[in-house]
Amino acid sequence: MSPRVIAGRYAQALFELSLRQKNTEQIAAEIHALLTLYKESRLLRNILESPIYTGPRKASWLRPLLEERLSPLLWNFILLLIRRGREYLLNETCEAFIAIYDAHKKRIRAYLRSAQPLPEAIKTSLADKLRTALGASEVLLTEKVEPSLIGGFILEVGTQVADLSVRGQLREIQKNLLSN
User: Fold this and answer.
1) Those residues with Cβ within 8 angstroms of residue 144's Cβ, 6 or more apart along the chain or in another chain
2) CATH for 3-103?
């Protein structure tokens, strides 16, 4: 079974437990913070991903760092991952939980890349159009500036990509010219 599938199953179990305990919002916030810490801390990644250290040793190192900051449910969940030898899946499990949580809240994450920063009015209008077109309750738009796009923008929602950049149009023209 692929690690992504395993992580998805753990994330689904954690989500269902948080629903039962009625603390889904808190768990989601803690997972966002944990995911940020995981991505920013090379030491944390090394501790969790290294096969050299045993599970109990990893748990003892993480206890002072995380136990007081996390809810008992999430801390016990991390301990479960460690006991089962799945701590290397923490990143994928957190990302899968966020995807499940977003789907539950009918929230969509969209990624916008543009040549220059877009005005807030355009981003708001784009988010509103996405919200109505996709039937979402909320659209979380993340913008990244890429001057190499020359002009226009690239919009990614899930696996769908709309390349409306000048660079993309020039590539398309080049492809058409070379194929003829």
Assistant:
1) 111, 112, 113, 114
2) 1.10.520.20
CA atoms of 166 and 176, how far apart (whole Å): 15
98-148 residue pLDDT tens: 999 999 999 999 999 998 998 999 899 989 998 998 889 999 999 999 988
Q: Which residues contact 33 (CB under 8 A, 6 or more apart)?
A: 69
CB atoms within 10 A of CB 48: 21
With CA atoms as reference, report the closest residue to 45 among 64, 26, 63, 58: 58
Strands 152-157 and 160-165: antiparallel
Beta-sheet strand order (sheet of 107-114) = 138-145, 107-114, 152-157, 160-165
- In this structure, what token pair is assigned to residue 52? 């050299």
